[in-house]
Recover the amino acids of this structure.
């Protein structure tokens, strides 16, 4: 056994993660030492500042291509692009999370541990400002996401997965209103997430076993879980691939759970509905980028040599995801659940792109992730605005006639829904075109056909909302649309502008994805 | 190719109404008259520009003229490429003529509703811009973009400003068109991959593909166009939309937007997939014939005027389909001419029906009767529109219907014979409709309606006059239009690889 020493680390390359990790630790101290009245502002500025600083360092090292930390972290085109995407979407999410003008004290509860329905609970619901520990939690989650997409071996990836997941479980439980739903969501997400992590870990062990049985594994130890070793083993192994296939399957379960692909999607509607809406937006945008970032790396780099083996199975998963998401979206009566199922269907479209294991597939999937992230954040931003005395009015019937009450927001939401439906002049169209084009080019025509079919089904629920808003008469119970505070307005503007720009002039982002779409070996 | 032809007609024509729509949308709601005037003036300016383009078009010159190209998404080989052949030119003229007429006809439509008047006229202009874009695009991606975006203004026109069952009709319209569009999207993507990642129409006509691929791609495009046109059995959305849409929008819907379907077949299906077009032609002809007979029979049985007119359109689209898939220059020219004439005749019919409905407050035939005694002039115009619709000799549709049948007979006698039956049925549904509404004894209920005593107003005269004039003019002297259409159709037939049977030709240069 050789002596274990610290491997050389290129600290420059991992600065973004270090910045965020440091800022989240500082955030914890802020909770402890800064007076209650100023915490919100301090935390908000700290979070936005930290994310921006991380983003600047990501942009700054845009040309870095290196593997560091003993092969545990790969900083390459896809990593940097996805990290940038996560950070930009993270900024927008933090804007939504930081909004406090829509509701007294913000969308979060002060103490999630107080028993629901008790006097103390009623008191904190109406009086107390929300907890500010949501900020360090978000930063921890973002740190995990950055690590998740940069991980170059399965163990690091697992650590990233846990670092991003654990704060998310907590964040789900922090809703100010409908706290039981929120707690149920958190518990459900935690339980199922824990299973998924276990699957991932088991798959990791099996893949390690596979590489260990391969003479061509790196070094003398006969095995490893870094992607280069796995890729070499996949290419050259002479042992039975049963372990490999079982390993891929189990790892895929873990990742597809986070990506909300069918049949591992059942948590999605409940969690999306129960979680505070800004957190839902955060999950729908950032978590999706992280999950697919990791999935892309695993499929392309580690198991790229076995793509003929997993493509049929994952293709079936993609088809199922698109159809399940689309069909179940039709029956929804709650806007957040509708968007949740739409997010499931979108996971399917992303999977279609991810399964085209070539440069075009990689580039188009990354494009889709960014485009979808902005649109979905804008969508949830509008959801936070439609309110009545009991908080957000999410039942669809309540949205009837909203176009009369406030044409501007109904118009904006219509635009967002058209983007989800993939109508041209929105990023929804260009991104769908990108992934379907890549899939078609890779010979997966049947996936394109299923994708198109599911888009047809999915258009119906979106259109129903449009009809509700514009063509129905406003009723007694039509809620009002609040004038957004500065932060929500900024988030909404960014989301809608990105949806429009990426739909009309997508060239610059396409160019960026094309240049970034190459993993380091 | 110097001087005026270098003016970027097509891009300006596409952009101008869209800009106008934005301007009109943001005019104050409190001053509806201003919005109407601006919208009308804007559409007249577009008409003037279109006329200039018509003059600048060189008959017998290159097939595609006014070509412009600007890069858009180089990574995908997408560009803003515009170009017009004779067929597109004729359709662009039709749009430019119909929109001001429709705006004038819809002058008071939005007032009665408690909805924004400026938005209504902005939607009409937006519709004009997107429709022009569809016909002017020479890049398939760009075509697809306009094809889909076009749905949005029409959806809101039907859904927000329509009549009875407008929500249902609007959703049905949108979903049917979107489903077709998505089939086309799959085919567009397939074509893009097969053709080496380009969307340039000219380049894509040159590529080789396997028979199987070609047929599938053809089907993707064809379904979209068949829904749009609409051909039997994809037609069920049209009567609902036609009945629910405000009369002016219905005139644009049936008069122009549906032509995108037949135009698409001529521009995209035939030249891009010639072998598949020939292979599918018998089926397409069968659908067209069923459409002619079936829709005509249904039209006879309708009690709702707007639904009736919608069904007559489906029958007419059957004729256009026959003309396209007969693969002769004569029939093809007839089909394109029919696309123009049908837009004028049915547009007129829809607008006149709209005037009647606005007075009576009902579109049911049984609510009318003997209208001619109260309003002789309007009833006369209605009769004329009906006659034009049934293709009476002397009116423009006759020329086109005759050309279609004449061009089809030498190559496919049974089809021509069956299609002729449709002519008889057309006489039946039109004359019976006219008889039940304007002739006979006066329906006593009508006298109670104040509006029914007011015959055609000056504004309405201005609305119908240009259409009547054009229908008569093209009925007697269609040559200026056929000269423009003929070379384009001939080139299309060459793309398909069909030559005309020996002894026929409309004009002398067609015979080369």
């Amino acid at each position: 056994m050789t002596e274990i020493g610290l491997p050389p680390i290129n600290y420059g390359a991992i600065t973004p993660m270090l910045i965020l990790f440091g800022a989240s630790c500082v955030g914890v101290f802020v909770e402890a030492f800064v007076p209650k009245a100023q915490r919100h502002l301090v935390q908000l500025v700290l979070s936005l500042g930290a994310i921006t600083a991380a983003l600047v360092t990501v942009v700054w090292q845009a040309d870095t291509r290196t593997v560091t930390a003993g092969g545990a972290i790969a900083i390459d085109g896809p990593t940097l692009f996805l990290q940038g995407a996560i950070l930009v979407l993270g900024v927008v999410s933090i804007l939504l999370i930081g909004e406090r003008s829509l509701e007294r004290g913000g969308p979060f509860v002060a103490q999630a541990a107080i028993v629901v329905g008790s006097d103390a609970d009623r008191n904190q619901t109406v009086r107390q400002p929300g907890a500010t520990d949501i900020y360090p939690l978000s930063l921890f989650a973002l740190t995990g996401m950055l690590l998740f997409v940069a991980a170059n071996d399965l163990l690091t990836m697992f650590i990233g997965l846990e670092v991003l997941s654990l704060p998310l479980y907590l964040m789900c439980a922090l809703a100010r209103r409908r706290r039981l739903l929120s707690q149920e969501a958190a518990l459900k997400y935690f339980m199922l997430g824990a299973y998924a992590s276990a699957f991932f870990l088991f798959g990791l062990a099996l893949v390690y076993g596979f590489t260990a049985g391969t003479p061509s594994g790196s070094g003398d130890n006969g095995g490893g879980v870094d992607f280069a070793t796995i890729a070499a083993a996949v290419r050259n192994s002479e042992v039975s691939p049963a372990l490999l296939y079982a390993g891929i399957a189990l790892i895929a379960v873990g990742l597809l759970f986070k990506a909300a692909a069918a049949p591992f999607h059942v948590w999605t509607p409940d969690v999306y509905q129960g979680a505070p809406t800004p957190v839902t937006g955060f999950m729908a945008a950032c978590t999706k980028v992280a999950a697919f970032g990791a999935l892309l790396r695993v499929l392309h780099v580690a198991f790229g040599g076995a793509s003929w083996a997993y493509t049929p199975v994952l293709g079936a998963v993609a088809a199922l995801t698109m159809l399940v998401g689309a069909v179940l979206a039709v029956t929804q009566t709650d806007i957040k659940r509708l968007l949740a199922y739409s997010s499931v269907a979108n996971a399917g479209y992303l999977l279609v792109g991810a399964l085209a294991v070539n440069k075009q597939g990689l580039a188009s999937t990354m494009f889709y992730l960014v485009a979808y992230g902005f649109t979905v954040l804008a969508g949830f931003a509008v959801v936070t605005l439609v309110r009545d005395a009991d908080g957000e009015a999410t039942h669809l019937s309540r949205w009837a006639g909203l176009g009369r009450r406030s044409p501007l927001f109904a118009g904006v939401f219509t635009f967002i829904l058209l983007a989800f439906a993939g109508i041209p002049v929105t990023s929804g169209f260009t991104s769908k075109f990108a992934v379907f084009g890549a899939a078609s080019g890779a010979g997966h025509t049947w996936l394109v056909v299923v994708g198109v079919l599911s888009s047809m089904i999915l258009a119906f629920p979106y259109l129903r909302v449009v009809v509700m808003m514009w063509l129905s008469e406003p009723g007694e119970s039509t809620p009002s649309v609040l004038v957004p505070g500065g932060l929500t307005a900024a988030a909404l503007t960014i989301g809608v502008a990105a949806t429009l720009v990426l739909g009309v002039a997508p060239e610059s982002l396409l160019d960026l994805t094309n240049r970034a779409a190459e993993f380091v070996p | 190719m110097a001087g005026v032809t270098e003016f970027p007609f097509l891009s300006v024509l596409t952009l101008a109404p869209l800009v106008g729509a934005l301007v009109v949308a943001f005019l104050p709601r409190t001053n509806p008259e201003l919005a109407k005037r601006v919208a009308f003036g804007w559409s007249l300016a577009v008409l003037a520009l279109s006329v200039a383009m018509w003059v600048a078009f060189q008959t017998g010159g290159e097939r595609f003229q006014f070509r412009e190209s600007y890069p858009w998404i180089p990574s995908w080989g997408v560009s803003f490429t515009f170009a017009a052949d004779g067929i597109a030119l004729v359709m662009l003229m039709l749009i430019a003529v119909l929109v001001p007429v429709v705006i004038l006809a819809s002058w008071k439509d939005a007032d009665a509703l408690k909805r924004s008047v400026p938005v209504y006229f902005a939607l009409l202009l937006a519709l004009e811009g997107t429709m022009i874009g569809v016909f002017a695009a020479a890049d398939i991606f760009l075509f697809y973009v306009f094809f889909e975006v076009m749905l949005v203004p029409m959806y809101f026109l039907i859904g927000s400003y329509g009549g009875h069952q407008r929500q249902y009709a609007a959703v049905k319209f949108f979903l049917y068109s979107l489903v077709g569009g998505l089939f086309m999207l799959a085919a567009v993507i397939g074509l893009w991959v097969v053709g080496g990642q380009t969307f340039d129409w000219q380049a894509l006509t040159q590529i080789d593909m396997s028979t199987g691929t070609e047929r599938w791609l053809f089907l993707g495009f064809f379904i979209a166009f068949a829904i749009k046109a609409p051909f039997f059995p994809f037609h069920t959305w049209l009567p609902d939309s036609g009945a629910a849409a405000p009369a002016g929008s219905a005139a644009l819907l049936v008069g122009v937007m549906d032509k995108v379907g037949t135009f698409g077949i001529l521009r995209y299906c035939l030249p891009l997939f010639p072998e598949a077009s020939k292979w599918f032609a018998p089926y397409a002809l069968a659908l067209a014939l069923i459409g002619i007979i079936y829709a005509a029979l249904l039209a006879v049985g309708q009690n709702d005027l707007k639904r009736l007119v919608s069904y007559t359109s489906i029958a007419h689209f059957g004729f256009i389909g026959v003309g396209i898939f007969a693969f002769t220059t004569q029939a093809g020219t007839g089909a394109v001419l029919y696309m123009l004439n049908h837009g004028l005749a049915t547009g007129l019919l829809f607008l006149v029906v709209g005037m009647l409905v606005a007075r009576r407050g009902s579109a049911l035939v049984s609510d009318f009767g003997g209208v001619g005694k109260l309003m002789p002039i309007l009833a006369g115009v209605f009769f004329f529109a009906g006659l034009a619709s049934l293709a009476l000799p002397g009116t423009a549709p006759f020329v086109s219907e005759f050309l279609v049948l004449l061009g089809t007979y030498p190559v496919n006698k049974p089809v021509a014979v069956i299609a002729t039956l449709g002519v008889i049925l057309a006489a039946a549904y039109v004359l019976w409709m006219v008889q039940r509404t304007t002739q006979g004894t006066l329906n006593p209920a009508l006298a109670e309606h104040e509006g029914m005593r007011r015959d055609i107003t000056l504004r309405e005269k201005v609305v119908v006059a240009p259409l009547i004039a054009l229908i008569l003019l093209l009925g007697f002297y269609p040559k200026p239009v056929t000269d423009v259409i003929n070379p384009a159709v001939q080139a299309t037939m060459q793309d398909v690889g069909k030559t005309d049977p020996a002894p026929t030709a409309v004009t002398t240069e067609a015979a080369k």
User: Anything to note?
Assistant: Chain A is about 70% helix and 0% strand. The longest strand of chain A covers residues 66-68. Chain A touches chain B at residues 418, 421-425, 429-430, 433, 436-437, 440-441, 445, 448-449, 452-453, 455-456, 459-460, 463-464, 467, 470-472, 505-507, 510-511, 514 (CB under 8 Å). The mean pLDDT of chain A is 87.
